[in-house]
Amino acid sequence: METFVDIFAQHWTVWLTTLVLIVAAVIDGVQLKVPNWITFPMILTGWAYSAYAFGWEGFGWSMVGAVVGLGLLLPAYAIGGMGAGDVKLLAGVGSWMYVMLDATQPETNTAMAMLYSFAVSAVIGALLAVAMVVLRKSWSKHYNQFWLILNEIGAVKSPTQLSEIAAERKSSMLLLPYGIPIAIGTIAYFAWTGMLI
After folding, report:
1. How many Cα atoms occupy the beta-carbon half-sphere of 170 within 13 Å?
2. d(CA 59, CA 72)
3. Enclosing domain of residue 111
4. What are phi and psi of 184, to 5 degrees?
5. 25 closest CA partner among 183, 195, 140, 152
6. Which end of the chain has the lower number of beta carbons within 10 A, N or C?
7. Residue 130 resides in a domain
8. Are 79 and 116 in contact (CB under 8 A)?
9. Number of neighbouring beta carbons within 10 Å of residue 196
10. C-alpha torsion sign, points 116, 166, 130, 39
11. How confident is the model over 121-176, as pLDDT tens digits?
12. What backbone torsions phi and psi does residue 193 show, to the nearest 5 degrees?
């Protein structure tokens, strides 16, 4: 029978990523920012360890994971709907995904795992956003802002201009620290796929 120490030793990369995600979520919840001292080391150590453990193939797949993580949130960041720290946090998860999968599910594709992890995070984010609006009893205001933003995205073609509009509106918006949904969604994905045990 495996002990917790045995499980941790086999899945230490998943547990390390989980711990970093929890710390990032707590900081984001308090400061509305995921700091670079968390995201950059997460990305760089993911690349370095993947290269150390699996050579060029590991480094390449680690880069793919980071690029997919970056690419999934970059459009929202470009138009002012997401903080840079959140984007880098998901890229950090991607940089570790290949080695985490190798330890738990070697047959799973890194890019697909990132897409699934992101999808769970997006659902969690949507649920948290709705809960925040309902608890603050500001449904009408945010419903109207939602449709205004969608119309702006359709009408204004310049990401720079959309970002400037979003910056002007930021003080009137209910901000969701997206590091929290990223952490909950990614850890839920780890649990659902059996990566934590």
Report:
1. 13
2. 20
3. 4-125+177-192
4. -60, -45
5. 183
6. N
7. no
8. no
9. 15
10. positive
11. 999 998 998 888 888 777 776 677 777 777 777 777 777 777 777 767 666 666 78
12. -90, 5
